[in-house]
Amino acid sequence: MFQINNQFPLNRDEFSSFVLEHQNTVVNTCHGFLHNREDAEDAAQQVFLKAWKNRESFNKDSKISTWMYRIAVNTSIDIIRKRKRLKYKQSLLSMFGISSEVSENVKDPLVKLIDREKAITLMKAIDQLPENQQTAWILTTTSEFSGQEAAEIMKMSVSSIESLKHRAKKRLKIILKDYYRTNKEGVRNNG
Q1: Domain final position from 37, 69, 103
Q2: 98 and 131 housed in the same domain
Q3: What is the mean pLDDT of residues 185-189?
Q4: What is the CATH number for 144?
Q5: Cβ of 22: how many Cβ atoms within 10 Å?
Q6: Longest alpha-carbon distance in the chain
Q7: 71 and 124 both lie in a single domain
Q8: 139: DSSP letter
Q9: Tens digit of pLDDT for each residue in 143-172?
Q10: Structural domain boundaries enclosing 76
Q11: What is the pLDDT of residues 110-122, one digit of tens each?
Q12: Following CA atoms 167, 171, 174, 178 in sequence, which dihedral angle do they give, to the nearest 10 degrees?
């Protein structure tokens, strides 16, 4: 296995070992944002390509893992922004009667374990969080980084990460409470 010694891999063989060692964590980080395994794997490829292309800019005083996961977060956020722009364009097209379907592909093993509707509801709730809360939440829960690691990735203090995570948790409770209240009322009214 490739050992991190704060030196970026210099050749392709070392880089291949590096990718194998960090692939699962990078994919899981991307998955926390994108909610789709295939999209997360595609994003992870982008992350490793960006890292290789920008290897000269790596600060050797930093941890490689922190640098890599920052790239993963930024890549995931860029993909989400592109999706939002696409959805906006598609909604404009539909206003003018031009058909364009946006499918919600959730092909993750998580969905097999948890009721699909609950998983989608949670994903949508996380998507409603402000970007910095969403990032702190995903890094410290879905990706299981420590507060210190998340702080390094987000370039913030640990206390700021904890504050963001706390606010995200409160916001998620409100979003989910409103959803389930509305859902129960709809069931009562229809039933």
Answers
A1: 103
A2: no
A3: 50
A4: 1.10.10.10
A5: 22
A6: 65
A7: no
A8: I
A9: 667 888 888 888 899 999 999 999 999 999
A10: 1-103
A11: 445 445 677 677 7
A12: 180
